Amino acid sequence: MTSLNPRQREAVLYADGPLLVLAGAGSGKTSVITRKIAWLIQERGVPARRIAAVTFTNKAAREMKERVQNLVQGGQSRGLIVSTFHNLGLRILKSELKACGLRSGFSILDQTDSREILKEILLQGESERDLNAVEAVHKCLSDWKNELVSPEEAVSQAQTEEEVRAAMAYSGYNRMLRACNAVDFDDLIMMPVQLFREQPRILEKWRHRLQYLLVDEYQDTNGAQYELVRMLTLPEGRFTVVGDDDQSIYAWRGARPENLDQLQQDWPALKVVKLEQNYRSTGRILKAANTVIANNPHVFEKSLWSDYGYGEPVRVAALRDEDGETDWIAGDLFHRRLQRGLHWKDFAILYRGNFQSRILEMKLQSLSIPYKVSGGTSFFSRSEIKDLMCYLRLLVNPDDDNAFLRIINTPRREVGPATLEKLAAWAGKRDQGLYHVCADLGLSEAMPAKAAEKLREFKQWLDSKREHCFRHNSLQAVKELITEMDYEGWVMQNASSPRIGEKRIENVWQLVRNIERMLEKQEEEDDGSSDLEAVIGKLVLMDMLEQQDEEDDSDRVQLMTLHASKGLEFPHVYMMGVEEELLPHRASIEDDNIVEERRLMYVGITRARETLTLTQARTRKQYGEKVDTTPSRFIDELPQDDLEYIGEGAPRNEERDSEMAEASLANLKALLE
Ligand code: ATP
Ligand code: MG
Predict the structure, then answer these.
(1) pTM of the model
(2) Binding pocket residue ranges, ligand 1, CB within 6 Å
(3) Looking at residue 661, what is its pLDDT?
(4) For labelling, which of 194, 288, 306, 389 has a CA lying 20 to 30 Å from the CA of 534?
(5) What count of other Cβ atoms lies within 10 Å of the Cβ of residue 351?
């Protein structure tokens, strides 16, 4: 407790009513949460299993759990719930299956699966010409669920043509999900709230179960999440939420920074603590952040200071083109690491869009600089991983028609579309799932005997795996599943090159290793649900929230989008592509929504502890053509006295730019030799 400042201590020690900690970046908000959990357990004697902390990503949850474990005496944190909102929702649904109309082993559909279902409903066999419309409807449904709007309400509220279309599809879509014993991502929050509204006794049970609730990154909660917290903590308001309105960067996904404001109205007894000392960054970095964000309108006034010294100027480097930009970053980073005796993991390179990482990755690879991309192209969106996940989903939930359709012919089993249509008609008449009816005796009347035989064989085989999985050894069963269907052979046959095939096979076994690790952990946690079932639920969620994010503390440069960097900190930060149309993003300029982009800039700047470097490519290829870029308006908004311009100021000089890039590479090579 001694290392906390007085305001932080006040926030930690206040547990008698609702508390909001509203403070800027790096002021110790997350630290307050971990300290408070430790204090509640050790000093207040609240059992760990009665405390739930909610964070934004699985990675953050993992870190928080570790920090608490380090703070409390051995074993005292057992049972503590630290999870994302969606994982908390999942936990509630799993314990209240019946009341929610679900059966055990229910599937959580990802975006692609939900879209497939919607496509079915909207297009009803028409060609796939109107995929944009499907996407728009999907967005509408998601927005409604995030705001707890029911299908009936949606129908009465809908105004635009799109909304009317979406509202019409909404209840059919929900019915379809329930028929497959499935929920979508947004249901994980909406369904618990509905359940609590309809069944006060169940709500009461959960209120009793969770005696204290803590929420990090509160500015990015949506309407449904707000309501979930409110219901669980009524009437006393035993919660601590921490947030920073200037770091709200998920409005496009339904987050409502107004929730901070709303909180004061809903909880008149709300205590607000503001933290002002930043313990992360040097004075210059902080000044840069404060100056930029001052251009946004503010509901809450905050000020932030640091006594970590003034520090080095913020560097702004303008390079010839995207090649020059990544060359320069790689060279500069390499140089600094040696010069200052740093580790690779002390560096982070942040960018606005995932596509920016590709060229950077190639550059780093060519220089043998180890790196790790977080939240990049999803591990789980790779076709081999989706295949295997669908097998696993079908193992735990035989009603999962989507999973069935994906894998019935992967690897090829010669089950054609005509057979599948007949199967669907058969299943529809009996009101059963596709997989269920595969072994029906009468099926051979509805289709050629050979086709029926293939389906039966498939079901018998997978049933035997299921049996093995739940009776004996899940991991063993998963491994057998992969080898018995000769998935490797199938991948190699279909890969465009042997190298790509091998990589894909490697990914499959990587997933198996992850499952193994998670199964081991599951044994420690033991929350009652079947092991494989729980692990698959977690994997699907991991996919949707942050994609691949293995527990990996090896020494690597960290690459990630600005969005993914929220809450994290690094000694040395590079921000790439600080240009108009990238940051701020073109779509935001067109929508006149610069404020959210400015917050993104603020998030990026405040990740840095010691040095910050912004880079810009003067030209960039767009549709195969070189286009001149303009430096981001946010660079103009920075305190100019604290900047050091590199490669700019003088009129454009391509020769000099390429000389610079070459010099840094030459430098690098010399160092390597
Ligand atoms: P963000 O808004 O980016 O999420 P935050 O407000 O959650 O930031 P933390 O991540 O909790 O801030 O803390 C920032 C850094 O300051 C961490 O390295 C943390 O260990 C350190 N820190 C927090 N409080 C103190 C303190 N009282 N004394 C020294 N260091 C502290
Ligand atoms: Mg934080």
Answers:
(1) 0.81
(2) 3-5, 8, 25-31, 244, 247, 279-280, 567, 569, 606
(3) 63
(4) 194
(5) 24
